[in-house]
Amino acid sequence: VKCAINAFGKKNWIGCFAVPFAVINDFRFLHSQPEETRRAGLIEAVKVALVKDRGFFDWIETNITALAALEPDVLETCVEKSALLHVHHIAGGGDPFETGSSRPLDFGHWAAHKLETLTSHKLPHAPAVAIGLALDTLYSIRSGMAPETLKTRVFAILNALQLSVYHPALDWLDEPGRRRVLDGLDEFREHLGGQLTVLMLKDIGQGVDVHWIDLETVGHCIDELRDLCENRLS
Fold this sequence. Notes:
Layout: E1 2-7, E2 10-17, H1 27-31, H2 35-41, H3 43-52, H4 54-62, H5 64-68, H6 72-91, H7 109-118, H8 125-142, H9 149-160, H10 183-192, E3 198-203, E4 206-210, H11 215-233
Antiparallel strand pairs: 1-2, 3-4
Helix pairs in contact: 3-4, 3-6, 7-8, 7-10, 8-9, 8-11
């Protein structure tokens, strides 16, 4: 439905909306991609499961070893389930032309888009979304919206898919000493138009829109992600 290009140092700054006649997923093309690309791309399936379908998330957990090994049959099933959830959301009461402020399919994307820009797109979209997803999962927990058990389940999947939950750009500071990634919230609001609306989690398969983000809590979440990454490497 949506296509866009980056411009003026912004993610998806110029684009258009057009409802497609059909969308074709050629699995031969999928299997021609490098292993790292295929594995990282699964983050979009994890994302849509987290915000829309607890049963699908349970399925990903059950099949995570096969998914991480990129077993073709399981991978194709995952892609199909993910695509159907995206289609059903957009076609069945979603907002394909983005006239409203809610963007449930953009969970984890405010930070992801800013990380891509900060790194001059050396950090690709899928790994950036993995970090953004991890950050917003922790925020959902630390702010009291989601249970602590959510962290164990989400991070186990990210770890199995060999996706990092931290990048040094999360700690890059501007001249006054503020984390530059936080500008992503303002840019996300500008992209939406009007009021800031960011989807967080109440639980697996249950999202909630929030209109204010506590920056100190975000900072604590970034500190935790850095510590988790350092402990994994040590």
